[in-house]
Design goal:
By secondary structure, the protein is α/β, with parallel strands linked by helices. The protein has one domain: P-loop containing nucleotide triphosphate hydrolases (Rossmann fold). Helices cover about 35% and strands about 25% of the residues. The protein is built from ten helices and ten strands. A ten-stranded mixed β-sheet has the order 5-4-1-2-10-9-3-8-7-6, sandwiched between helices. Strand 4 and strand 5 form a beta hairpin.
């Protein structure tokens, strides 16, 4: 990735989003996005269904590029580099900005091969056994699977599968982890394990998480962005950023009444 010397330089920020708007064709799906995502912190994106949280999340590693007609205007910077500069290698970008999806999606391969797959594709030349163990330890899964690395990743429980997906994501040594409702398909015990893991992972990674769970956002995040949606004349929903602040402010003293109403459960 090339350095954009005209952009900001702030070592405490991972992303800066300036007046970004997201379109599907001519339809403005999410508007007025201004956020600074701090380094090695957890930022939660919250809001009702249809407000564009997952759409915004996917802007950070350009997964939305895969949707025909999708585009972003405004600016999204990653460590001072314009993410949407045409010279950016999107594959390299997605290596640096990993993704964990809503439902656990292990490959139909062994536990070992699930973790080793990404580094192999990337041409990793180091000790693969050490990398697999380090990644599984980083995902708090090593003790559960160290004696069955040859077994299918699909044989694990739901919570273990999600931690395997996290191990797979960190095996390619990213700088950022994007998590799209990573606990929505998990039971409460597995959810708490993943939340504890997030607190450990933020020592090394910047984490952005989409969640519908207000208690989870309050428990795990350092900053929170609240999005809402309004109906357009044609009956579709248009998302917009209402408020972005430290999580304690969002949940205890938000600036906007709609934020207070949402986090207190009055709507959503």
């Amino acid at each position: 990735m090339q350095t954009n010397t005209a952009s900001f330089i702030d070592t405490n920020l991972t992303f800066r989003v300036e007046n970004a708007n997201y379109y599907y064709g001519s339809f403005l799906a999410v508007r007025d996005i201004y956020v600074d995502i701090p380094e090695r912190q957890i930022t939660a994106l919250i809001g009702p269904s249809g407000c564009g949280k997952s759409t915004v999340l996917r802007c950070f590693n350009r997964l939305n590029d895969l949707i025909p007609g999708a585009r972003v205007d405004g600016k999204i910077y990653f460590r001072g580099v314009d993410l949407y500069n045409p010279t950016i290698d999107s594959n390299e970008l997605r290596r640096r900005i990993g993704m964990v999806f809503q439902k656990p999606n292990p490959f139909p391969k062994s536990i070992y091969e699930n973790v080793a797959f990404g580094p192999r594709v990337a041409g990793y030349q180091g000790n693969m056994d050490e990398l697999v163990e380090r990644s599984l330890r980083g995902a708090a899964l090593w003790d559960d699977v160290k004696d069955k690395l040859g077994e299918s990743g699909l044989s694990l429980s739901g919570g273990q599968q999600q931690r395997l997906c996290i191990a797979r994501a960190i095996a390619i040594e990213p700088e950022v982890l994007l998590m799209d409702e990573p606990c929505s398909a998990l039971d409460p015990i597995s959810t708490l394990k993943v939340e504890d893991l997030m607190q450990e992972l933020k020592q090394k990674y910047t984490i952005i998480i989409v969640t519908h769970n207000m208690q989870q956002a309050a428990r795990v995040s350092d900053y929170t962005a609240f999005f809402n949606a309004q109906e357009t004349e044609k009956g579709s929903k248009q998302g917009y950023l209402v408020e972005y602040a430290p999580t304690e402010v969002i949940f205890k003293n938000p600036a906007q009444q709609s934020t207070q109403d949402y986090v207190s459960g009055r709507f959503g």
